[in-house]
Design a protein that fits this description.
Blueprint (H helix, E strand, L loop, with lengths): L1 H12 L3 E6 L14 H8 L1 H6 L3 H4 L4 H4 L1 H17 L4 H12 L4 E5 L5 H4 L7 E3 L2 E8 L7 E3 L6 E2 L6 E2 L12 E5 L10 H15 L6 E6 L7 H13 L2 E5 L11 E3 L3 H11 L15 H15 L15 H23 L1
Parallel strand pairs: 1-2, 1-9, 2-3, 9-10, 10-11
Antiparallel strand pairs: 4-5, 4-8, 6-7
Helix pairs in contact: 1-11, 7-11
Length: 342
Amino acid sequence: MEQAIAQAAAALAQADALWIGAGAGMGVDSGLPDFRGNEGFWRAYPPFARRGLSFVQVANPRWFDVDPELAWGFYGHRLALYRQATPHQGFALLSRWAARLRHGAFVFTSNIDGHFQRAGFAADRLVECHGSLGWLQCARACSPALWPTGALELDVDGVTFRARPPLPACPRCGGMARPNVLMFGDERWISVRSEQQEAAQLEWLGRLRGARLVLIECGAGTAVPVVRWTAEGLARRWGGRLIRINPREASGPADAITLECGALEGLHALAEALGEAGLPRHGGEETGATRARAEEASAQRLRGPTALFSLCSEAQLPAASRRSRRRAWRRASAASSAKSVR
């Protein structure tokens, strides 16, 4: 792996812009579960093992209709888990590298934990393609409005993993609220926030003409391969060099640089190859006052004057982008459902 690390470090040293792709494996070094396979999921949630419910079956919006205590028990526990975890030092390394580049960085993640924002990355340089636990919506999608999760805390039974009332409600219709997260078999996910983020990413990419783009993908698996597909597609279209860091599924296109290791290990190895001594305690220059002001400005734009925000309608986004997103998710969802049945 030493040769691959040297190649990756050389590419990064010459880069003008950095695209960061992150899947569930990015959070493992922060102590978060990646729910890889039913056994891993059931170890984390024994009550679902007793009922024979897989992650694919539990992460389904129908539970907010038929058993909201179960639904909010699962997502409420995850919300608390993500809040308690601290983003590992690999986030700080990525932030430090991004701060040195002429065009900075853009993040594309399928994770819903909000850890990139907590690590100092700007909210307006981020795509959360599966949404975020930091935002709520109506479970019946009575309107396109979203509102911040804020300091919401669910009373979740530590044995049954069921949430006790009161449960979050929609401020418009009074019905059940749910996280603004894309679930399996989800027809009610309000996607406008993620689509606005994707529009910002396209705008950023459009400014990279002639720039040397490096893509670092961390912990993105093949079960739901949206991050992998996006990284490979951008590398082809924009002529970027893809560095894939994955302990079990590191294979990729012929011209990709692959590191068969965990995210933190791979990023630390890159730092050493770049001659950087030690790991930063914080996120480097990008977590300073300038970055904080950018995040607050972006948050103000998203919140709007009423704290309920409704972004551009889906019709305002390119039709091809909407179709490709839905097609990719349907394929990934079908494949994951088939695996859980087997």
